[in-house]
Amino acid sequence: MLQEIRSPKISFNLLVLQLIRNCFQILPTKRSLYKKLTNSRYIKLFLPHHYTQMVARLDNGIFITVDVKDYNGRMLYLCGMAYPEVVDTCRYLLRSGDCFLDIGANYGAVGLSCSDIVGADGGVYLFEPQPNLCQRLRAAIEEQNLSRVQLHEVGLMDRDDVLEMSLLDNHSGEASFVFNQQESANKIRLEVKNIATYLPPLLAGRSFGSKVDVEGAEPYLLPWLIQQQQMRFVVFENTHLPIQERKHLFESMTGNGFTLFGVKNKGSQTYLDHFSDPEDYSRYHDLLAVRIKPSLSIPHRLRPDILHTLQQT
User: Fold this and answer.
1) pLDDT tens string 180-215
2) 74 lies in which domain range?
3) Are 122 and 165 in the same domain?
4) Tens digits of residue pLDDT in 128-178
5) CA-CA distances (angstroms) from residue 204 to 122, 201, 240?
6) Which contiguous run of DSSP H or E holds residue 24?
7) In a domain, 7, yes or no
8) What is the pTM of this model?
9) Is 52 in the same domain as 122?
10) Which of 45, 105, 253, 273 lies at a 20 to 30 A Cα distance from 282?
11) DSSP state of 16
């Protein structure tokens, strides 16, 4: 249920945390401060000890229950957003009737934030294998009748399998099928599906955009995605890609008609930096590959709303 677990006694910590959240929600600077605010040791001092399940409200009005002990859950509860530069980019580049693939959805913040953009003929597909997160996503979808959103409780890889996932306490966003993390990490075996056979029936030939954040599994997914002529863009995390893999992916993307941008959040704005050298990969946490109309001159830096006008139809 989308409700906070309440204590029979008024908690000072809870009241302070709610006050901090209310302040963050109206701060015009929250977009540039959200990571620092979320992980601040001073914020952590006021986390409730016995009831940490809170209801977060996303910027587009959708609610989801989160665990504020978890970094990603705390980010959503306090700021109503996760990675605003990624959300901005996806919302501007999606069009009514598109499908949106949120691969490595976590709490679904990016996909849910885009669900009002795709229109009645489009759809949002969330792919998340972590059982506790899936339970929260199911409740959010069912109780708010989010008919355009589908949850797929699987991971995606380059094969059908059952793989071991490493889970870190209090940071669901770093769960990985690829990295073994610390010895203290919890291990759980979860189902993964072959992206090349699982996605085509869902997409049914429709145009789509993607967000991929899968903690090291990107090289298993991106090669298939960038070969799909219906894919108009993909935003993906860059930090876990080996240097040689970055060069190979860059060549594959440009060879399949994509233009590369680094995604940045500066102040209250999202900016996209165009680059044509794979050595520039390391300057950005997130990258965007998008199909641009041919023969256009692309400025070094532009906003997602401007890039929207340059996209191929």
Assistant:
1) 766 657 899 999 999 999 999 999 999 999 999 999
2) 12-79
3) yes
4) 999 999 999 999 999 999 999 999 999 999 999 999 999 988 899 999 999
5) 11, 5, 31
6) helix 12-26
7) no
8) 0.91
9) no
10) 105
11) H
